[in-house]
Amino acid sequence: MKALLKSPWVFHLSTGSCNNCDIEILDCLTPRFDIERFGMLLVGSARHADVLLVTGIMTRQSAPAAKRVYEQMAKPCVVVAIGSCSLGQGIFKGSYNAPIPVDEVLPVDAYIPGCPPKPEAMIAGVVKLIQKLQGAK
Amino acid sequence: MAEKRRTIIPIGPYHPLQEEPEFYKLFVEGERIVDIDVRIGYNHRGIEKLAESKHYDQIVYLIERICGICSTSHPIAYVQAVEDIMGDIEIPERALYIRSIIGELERVHSHLLWLGLAGHFLGYNTVFMWAWKYREPVLDIFEVISGNRNHYAMLKPGGVRRDIDDDAIPGIIKILDDLIPVLDMFKGAVLDDPVLAARLKGVGILSKKDIVEYSALGPVARASGIEIDVRKDEPYAAYDRVKWNVITQQEGDVFAKAVVRILETYESISIIKQCLQKMPKGPIDAELKDIPPGEGIGHHEAPRGETFHYVRSDGTNSPVRHKVRAPTFMNFPTFKASVIGERVADATIILAAIDPCYCCTERMSVIDRKSGKQLLAGEQLIKLSQERTKEIARKMGRS
Q: C or N terminus of chain B, fewer CB within 10 Å?
């Protein structure tokens, strides 16, 4: 777990988002915020990732695919839900295609609220999670 | 003669190529793509149905979340549809100008975003980083005006929700002025770079005929020489009160699409500056009466093409039908014309060239899944694309 926290690699999974949380995640990587300074890297495959960032409501069609992506990840790993939609379905609550919230499909470890959360909020959320995990060992 | 062996290359649904889940199947013979199949629906959220259960004012927030990148295009089209139902309502001048300003700011940020992603697919990660770096000040403008970097919540039927502070205007104009040399740099980097020209010219060509047959819209159509732009063809907001040009290119390849987007950004900046200077003082919203039974349409030239909304009212608080047609829905099928016959390495940039936005486009459909044998994983495909750029650079002695 210690090795995982030194340089967490993240994989980004959109399960039915409006794209906004996704571009804000990408924003974290670009020069203004640049989380690569801390060894965080967005990777192209869930198999290489330590942290799974989930955005958006869990749509009917996405749920099985999201589950498979989670199963592909090397354990131990961390799941972070980003944005109002993945926290409590947000404005899409009651939609026929959003049967269950994200945290009933995946074991979510941290929630970052906002629509969309600012890059600063995302960074703060991940830092808090890392500190908590370090305390727990 | 034995039939040639076809290989299926699946891309997606979760794939680093795009931020959103979608599923392409490329059918290839050797290096050449012979057919393409697209499966979407991973992002379908039932927004049209949800809209029927919300009030007219609430729907603005809902449809803003159709798409995060064009998050003001849908509201502009929607409020116009509602105002169309009401008929005789008069929108204050100032509100019209603010609508245009927000619409154009969005185009600036969206085109820079596309430029960055296109650079990434081609292996020019510097372009990606720089385009996104210079996109940040535009988001700062949004934060000054609306309080949020994305999802501005500026629109409402009858006007806009927030005014632009007079004190903020010099700052906004300065940020926009600073953007011009940046765009000059990008223009120079794209137009004069021989490697990019060799890589993108003549790739993924859409002829005028293709555009008409597929009813493609926006920059995709304009890059093929078709002058189509709702802002000019049927002006709304303040677009008929300022001077600007519709940008067109004749070639229809990926290069032309990039050029159209870069040049359009200049036009957008000019529109915003003119609007900020010409904007009259006054109220920003009109008082609304009850919405009568009837139907209305509204449209807006989103960064990707025309967004079209149709709303039918029965005189109650919620619409009985709300129909959304996003630009990607029309531009999507052009893949059939542009990708087939091209090399696998070029597929990523051709698919990206229409600036697809799936969260706008998702439609409900029942699909049958047949799995193809996976030969190339997603990252390898991007790598292939980046290697092809390097190969061209090497041939030209520029590596």
A: N
